[in-house]
Amino acid sequence: MNDFLNITAFLSFLLLIGTFVKSKVKILQELFIPASVIGGIIGLFLNSNFLRQYIEILPSKWEGDIRAIPGVLIIPILVSVPLGMKIEKENKIMKNIVNTGGILFLITFTQLFIGYLVNFIFDKFFRIKLYKSFGAELNSAFAGGHGTAGVVARTLKELGSKYWELAQGVTVTLATIGLICGIIFGIYQIKMKSKTSLKKDILTEYKSGHIKDRTKQKSIGQETMLNTTIDTLAYHLAIVFGVSGLAIISLNMLKKLNIPIVSKITVWSYGMLVMFIVWKIMVKKGLDWSIDSKIKTKITGTLTEFAIVAAVATIPLRGVIGYIFPIVCVSLLGFSLTWIIIFKLSQRYFQDYHLERTLAMFGTSTGVFITGLLLLRICDPKLETPVLQDYSLGFSITALLGPILITLCIQLSFIYNYFYPMSLLISLIVFTVIFLEWYNKGVEI
C-alpha cells in the first residue's frame, strides 16, 4: 500500500512539474503539448540508464507497476463511456450525427488497415519482421490518444505477449506525433481556407493551458447529491469503479465456465456492456438525474492524465528507436489519408460548415477529442454552429465501439497473422462506404 501512495505521489509530482514547465517554455505552448506528456518525458529522463549511473531517483521495483498503470486505468476510463449518454432523435440532427459517426468509423477502419498494411509491406517486401500485432497502434494513438496505449498494452498482456511494453511505447510515440502534427496542420488549414482571422485569445488560452480570468472559469459539474448522504464526486466514482469491479468479477466467473466467445472478451468491452445495462436501469427507475456528465468526464479526464504520464515515463526507448522507420512510414501514410478522407467526405455529405466539421473530425482523428474542439473553437469561437453537437454525439458512438474493434484486431493478428484483421477491415471499409452512399442518396453532390 505504501508503494501505491508513493507511485501516485511520484506521478502527481510529474504532472505538476509538467504544468509548470509548460507555463514557462514557449515552444511547448506553441506545440500544444499537454502537461501529462511533458511530465512523462521528465519521468522518462529521471528513470533513464544515464541518470541511474549517478543517482537512483525512481526505485527499480516501481518501474513495472508504473508501466502497468495505463492498462489498469483504461478499464474505468472505457467502462464509464455509456454512463450518462444521451442521443437526440430529431431527423435533421440525426442525419449529421450519422454522417459524422460514419466518417469517423471509416477513419478508424482505414487507420487500422494502414497499420497492418505497413506490417505486411515490411514483411513481404523488405523482409523485416515486425511483431505480430503491429498495426493497431496507429488508430489507438491517432484517434485514441496517449491514454489508449493502455488498451493495446492490456490486450497483449492478457494474450500472454512478451512485447506488450514495446507496443505501448510505440503507441505513445505515435500519439505524440499525431497530436503535434494534427494541431499544426489544422491551424495551417484554418489560415489557408478560413475567411475569418484566427482568434488570438482562444489560441493564447489553449497554449497556456490555464484560465486566470475568474469570470471565464467554468464549473466542473452540478451537485446532484448532498454531503449529508454522499459527496457527489464520490458517488460518481463509486458507480464507475463499482461497475468496473462488477465487470471484472463476473467476467472471471464466466471465463471459468470455458464459454468460447466469452473467454475472448476483454474486461473493458464487457464492462461497457455492463455499464449500458446499469445506465438503462437507472434511466428506467428515474435515477438519471443523479448523474452529471461533466463530473463523469472530469473523473475519466483525471484518470487519463495519470495513465498518460505513466505510459510516457516508461517508454522502452531502445525498442521504440528500433521501430522508428515503420513508425515514420505508418505516420505519414495515416496522416495523409486521414486528412484526404475527412476533407472529401465532409464536402460530399454535409450541406453546411464544411471546414468546421472537417477540422473537428480531423483533430479528433489525429489527437484527442479536445484537439478537435480546439480547432473547432478557432473557426467557431462562440460555438454558434451546430457542429459541436453533431461532432460530440458522432464521436460518442465511435468512442464506444472503437476500442472493441481495436481489441478484436489485436487478438486476430496475435493469434493468427495480419491478413485476418486486414480482411475484416476491408469488409468494414466497403460496408461503411456503401452505407454512407445509401444513407445520403438524396444529397446533391
TrEMBL record:
Transmembrane segments: 6-21, 28-46, 66-85, 97-122, 166-190, 233-253, 259-279, 323-346, 358-379, 391-412, 419-439
Signal peptide per UniProt: none
Cross-referenced Pfam families: Glt_symporter
Keyword vocabulary terms for this entry: Membrane, Transmembrane, Transmembrane helix
Listed InterPro entries: GltS
Domain of life from the UniProt record: Bacteria
PANTHER family: SLR0625 PROTEIN, SODIUM_GLUTAMATE SYMPORTER
Protein name as it appears in the record: Sodium/glutamate symporter
Organism: Candidatus Cetobacterium colombiensis
